Amino acid sequence: MIHFDTDYMEGAHPEVIRRLTETNLEQTAGYGNDPYTARAKELIRKACGQPGAAVHFLVGGTQTNATVIDGLLAHHEGVLAAETAHINVHESGAIEATGHKVITLPQHEGKLRANEVKAYITDFYRDETYEHMVAPGMVYISHPTEYGTLYTLDELEDLSRVCREAHIPLYMDGARLGYGLASPGTNVTLKDIARLCDAFYIGGTKVGTLFGEAVVAPDPKRLPHFFPLIKQHGALLAKGRLLGIQFETLFTDGLYERLGAHAVRLALKLKQAFVQKGYRLHLDSPTNQQFVCLPNETIDRLAQEATFELWGPRGETETVVRFVTSWATREADVDTLISLL
Amino acid sequence: MIHFDTDYMEGAHPEVIRRLTETNLEQTAGYGNDPYTARAKELIRKACGQPGAAVHFLVGGTQTNATVIDGLLAHHEGVLAAETAHINVHESGAIEATGHKVITLPQHEGKLRANEVKAYITDFYRDETYEHMVAPGMVYISHPTEYGTLYTLDELEDLSRVCREAHIPLYMDGARLGYGLASPGTNVTLKDIARLCDAFYIGGTKVGTLFGEAVVAPDPKRLPHFFPLIKQHGALLAKGRLLGIQFETLFTDGLYERLGAHAVRLALKLKQAFVQKGYRLHLDSPTNQQFVCLPNETIDRLAQEATFELWGPRGETETVVRFVTSWATREADVDTLISLL
Amino acid sequence: MIHFDTDYMEGAHPEVIRRLTETNLEQTAGYGNDPYTARAKELIRKACGQPGAAVHFLVGGTQTNATVIDGLLAHHEGVLAAETAHINVHESGAIEATGHKVITLPQHEGKLRANEVKAYITDFYRDETYEHMVAPGMVYISHPTEYGTLYTLDELEDLSRVCREAHIPLYMDGARLGYGLASPGTNVTLKDIARLCDAFYIGGTKVGTLFGEAVVAPDPKRLPHFFPLIKQHGALLAKGRLLGIQFETLFTDGLYERLGAHAVRLALKLKQAFVQKGYRLHLDSPTNQQFVCLPNETIDRLAQEATFELWGPRGETETVVRFVTSWATREADVDTLISLL
Amino acid sequence: MIHFDTDYMEGAHPEVIRRLTETNLEQTAGYGNDPYTARAKELIRKACGQPGAAVHFLVGGTQTNATVIDGLLAHHEGVLAAETAHINVHESGAIEATGHKVITLPQHEGKLRANEVKAYITDFYRDETYEHMVAPGMVYISHPTEYGTLYTLDELEDLSRVCREAHIPLYMDGARLGYGLASPGTNVTLKDIARLCDAFYIGGTKVGTLFGEAVVAPDPKRLPHFFPLIKQHGALLAKGRLLGIQFETLFTDGLYERLGAHAVRLALKLKQAFVQKGYRLHLDSPTNQQFVCLPNETIDRLAQEATFELWGPRGETETVVRFVTSWATREADVDTLISLL
Asked: Per the database record, which ranges form the Aromatic amino acid beta-eliminating lyase/threonine aldolase domain (chains A, B, C, D) (predicted)?
């Protein structure tokens, strides 16, 4: 059986494991007050081109989103997001549990449009009853999106400008950021993101570490008193150095880029095979998640030898299916899958 | 200037004021432990045909919705509501502030459809990832809706059945319930509502009292420990008897019905005038709120002599306008408005 | 039967009722956007000597405390309060329900001591683990306290200085403020309070109105976006003018002062009688709540003709009892009570 | 430099690392739906003597406490805990952030007393105003406590009985449970705990794993819908098998017991040395945390060669100091420390 369900089916890149093993019995202070964490932060600041940025390490994506969003919003504010946003759909209400509304806007292949964000904010303050409504206090985007799609630099510049004109922060969920940065077609760099977003996170869980997400706030004043907030949200790892060691490894010798490139190359190879064999893409994803419409009989046949996810309910004759590659995907498995198509 | 902005522009019905005045210097225990409150509860139980019902008095609508919904939901659950629901749009995030998501469904003239509620719940539990999503823990409807429309008895029966099959409560926001019950076309009675809903409130603020909403739970076990929850939500009035006195008055000698009938009669007179004069209704409301499309020049002309609300942003040539009557509306004002059309 | 249980057993001062009645059928905009509310705010600003102050009207004490405290605190902060503070004991966890810890300090006849507040804050930041603890983000005091006692001007100056040095706001719960200001021994004026506190409320519910509390923030920037927060907390009254009319009446022709003085005069008359008849005071309250130790047989005898509250559990031979007067207490009832002692 | 600051200064026991490494590139489903997690749960059920127990794996202690306590409490309830409880002092308000009050009782060397818990509950419901107060909805204890002390079996039986008579759950924070079970003097076994508590967690972070806590609910109905609650609290690890693998290792071949015994043996050796050299114990801890009063000059001298924590502020001439051993402590380091005393 070969697996294309998700990008978190394996542990960590062997180099990460090697570093965790070789430092295992060292003794350091807890909660991130260790030299590994300090070095990892420095490497990330450098990669982002933001020497003054605050960098915080948390364990997982949902807790990162809830903690950052809670930190960015005032009590009366909510977060604008696409209706397909992970925070709106698949986090069990973690944002609302912190008291904040997720205000949804239409999604376009998983993306928000700057003009629609702008129109929402403008209309909001034009409404005479706006003080009875939840104020749009920030914008959440994911990059890549839940559909694997990417913002172009122009789109990101536009969103950033709209947010800055409205004096609200732009936050990017980068759970799969490595796969976005490595996409051959993208013109968005990590430095662009750091320049255009007020906060974002660089996902480790899906891109090479056992777990861990690195929150970056280019202007640290955007996330004041963030340490106690991390603790309050139960997101503070006692052995914080485990996060430092893993991210130090990712950001050494270009490992993060290489892991991203590997997964994307295999995903695009798979996409090409689908197209060549005449299957219809559900949408054109340039990253490690591929969505394709398959006849139900093809699905049943493939399921004998491979695992993958149905995307939504099974249709009458065909169904959208998601195939995911990762840093750990073996090319042989991709080739096998292609041979089965 | 004549006013049709809202149904809470005046104080209370004179009989309510008279009773408040004549009991003013009596001394009673606080927090609803007084004979007026006891009698009011008994009158409401009787009107609902539910001798065993729990009745609780709160001050305003938003706090009532937040307290009841918080009381009905488990931590991991959210409330299903139409996208136009008051709790979704105009309560400043009060529901989310208690930690719960408002899960929106399409609205049909302000109403939910039972089959869409059923489909949502069915699809939810068919989704393999449902434990990562907010479980639909109850259904919220308003009757009349925010658009003045009413559920038919069949529609309400259907919604109730869907909820009971799914083992989740059906809750009705009755801020304007008196205007719904008094609508000539309705076949839904207060007893029907008490039979079909698991909790609902009978609104006083908009139908004759200074303030106050009466929450009814036909089966008291549905809202266990509700008294401390009312207190925790800041919704417990120290001089609770003020609520008792007002609702006792409303439910004596059919006052509540008469107040409702008055407002609806005038609203329908106004609607008929709009139609006769050739204006297009935005939708066909059988209650005290009327929505009509008016040319902008007509709006500007009327605004010289009357106040009312634009419903949404002003259009290029015409705009939807809301006119509201209440228990206190003077027929002469309606006639004046009609003469201006 | 004569009653000394609480200071919210009656309705409102007759002048308040008269004004509510005479304005009852006027039509005004809702939510406090009416001329009565505007005038009441102006009168309060003037009484406080703070022409630039923000004034907000809410319905009850618990909701006022929860809304203001939520508005003053950052997510990671808690509120310092005496262990006997109303917010710590008798609000059903309303503060915690907004996500904030009540951090308790020892009480001294219901009061906090400035030096103990200062020591707490100093020790807090000396603790190496302070970022794992709830930061003291504000100080809550009540004046009069839950024991009827009052801060002296020196004590209040000290608390204010400690707070300002620590850059945290001082908030006063003035549920019974009228009875504090009217105490013959006090040297604290409303202007002092407005000068020394960052937020406070002037209680109406217990001092002459049907309900209502007036929040004052001398510097409006201390409570930014407070209107949507009031709405979110379910504390926004639809017919906001009811609050405006009541407070306008209280602050016209010195009514608030007269109501306070009446209750305090009768309470002190009662206290003097207790002392003269040889009963031991539990503590020496200069306001409208009197606490006295009575032999159980005396309690049983009095209970035949008067109602009052046991303060804590009944003792073996004697018990602390609370007697409360109010703006509405009849001198004849006090004389009757005295004759029974 | 030798280190006795905390029990989370190293990574994981080498056997844990070995298992993580050797399974690293296997592909499994996420979120705990993997065979390692299933086996770990089975091993824990067996160790607890509770074949029907629910077992859930979370990442860290604060998130575990917040999630379990939120899951056990109704909205109007709070958690009873010793004033020194970790949830009251060192979790940045994580419990209050979920809306629940921590109700504190006196601590006796870190422990609650059953009779004091009982008295609190009895007095609570005797208070006529109890519905205005936060209901005691559960009891939190830690074992070992924050002071390293242990409940005796009698004490635990008494607490359990008090809770069961009051129909509220007893929850044990077992962050250092392994060190408690391994203490030579204890008569409390894991099976006793599972029999007497309604929920508890077996801590991994401080006893041999990189991270991870195993929540056990002997009666699964006590924590209904706990999976979405874990997700909502941001406590669900994507690669859940990492927790399964680690706990499977701990509960294989008695590793957990051996790790506990190692740390306790060295801690008691250290305690004996303190006593023999004439130092005064702050209290008599039978587990891996030792608290001793040291003259300040001794502290300064030791600090040249060892790290440890001052317990509270430095005194004028002597200060309480904490020394902690762990599964990873080298006997040579303990001997060195003893030689320095």
From this structure: 6-237
What the block records as the tokens of D195 is 């029999």
Q: Which residues pair with D98 in a beta bridge?
A: none
Q: SS3 helix, strand, coil % of chain C, rounded to 5?
A: 40, 20, 40
Tell me if C93 and D78 make a contact (CB, 8 A cut-off): yes
Average pLDDT over residues D300-317: 91
Of C250, C277, C304, the residue at which a domain comes to its end is C250
Contact B305, B1 (CB under 8 A): yes
CB A236 within 8 A of CB D62: yes
Q: What is the mean pLDDT of residues A120-124?
A: 95
Residue where one domain finishes, among candidates B219, B250, B281: B250
Residue C230: which domain range? 14-250
pLDDT at C314: 83
Both structure tokens of B202: 């009978």
Pair type for strands A309-310 and B289-295:
unpaired
Classify the complex by whether its ipTM is higher than 0.85, answering yes or no.
Answer: yes
State whether B135 and B214 are in the same domain: yes
Rounded distance between C-alpha atoms, residue B190 and residue B46, angstroms: 10
Which of C5, C27, C57, C259 is best to mutate for the B interface (most B CBs within 10 A)? Answer: C27
pLDDT on residue B116: 98
Nearest CA among C128, C81, C84 for reference residue C101 = C81
- Give the mean model confidence (pLDDT) for residues C139-156: 98
| C167 and A CB contact within 8 Å | no
DSSP per-residue codes, D38-80: HHHHHHHHHHHT-TT-EEEEES-HHHHHHHHHHHH--TTEEEE
Q: Are residues C43 and C174 in the same domain?
A: yes
B284: tokens are: 């066909």
pLDDT value at C127 more than 90: no
CB contact (8 A) between residue A237 and residue D60: yes
Residues from chain D contacting residue B229 (CB–CB below 8 Å)? 75-76
Distance (Å) from the alpha carbon of A133 to chain B's nearest alpha carbon:
4
Nearest chain B residue (CA) to D98: B99
User: Is the Cβ–Cβ distance between A176 and A7 less than 8 Å?
Assistant: yes
Tell me the DSSP string of C266-279. Answer: HHHHHHHHHHHTTP
Sequential DSSP letters for D84-136: T-HHHHSSTTHHHHTT--EEEE--BTTB--HHHHHHHHHHHHHSTTGGGS-EE
The tens digit of pLDDT for each residue in C47-77 reads 999 999 999 999 999 999 999 999 999 999 9
D131–B76 C-beta distance less than 8 A = no
Distance linking the first and last C-alpha atoms of chain D: 15
Q: C-alpha angle D219/D221/D222, rounded to 5°?
A: 75
C147 and C126 inside one domain:
yes
Residue A8 has pLDDT above 80, yes or no: yes
Question: What is the number of structural domains in chain A?
Answer: 2
At A211-264, the pLDDT tens digits run: 999 999 999 999 999 999 999 999 999 999 999 999 999 999 999 999 999 999
CA B132 to CA B127: how far, in whole Å?
10
Window 242-271 of A: residues touching D by CB (8 A cutoff) are: 242
pLDDT digits (tens, 9 = 90+) for D137-151: 999 999 999 999 999
Percentage of chain D beyond pLDDT 90 is 96
Same domain, C180 and C323: no
Q: What integer best gives the mean pLDDT of chain B?
A: 97
Measure the CA–CA gap between C133 and C127, rounded to whole angstroms. 9
C238 interaction partners in chain B (CB closer than 8 Å): 8, 60-61, 205-206, 211
Q: What is the pLDDT of residues A13-65, one digit of tens each?
A: 999 999 999 999 999 999 999 999 999 999 999 999 999 999 999 999 999 99
Strand-pair category, D54-58 with D213-217:
antiparallel
Q: Which of A71, A131, A228 sits opposite C231 (nearest CB)?
A: A131
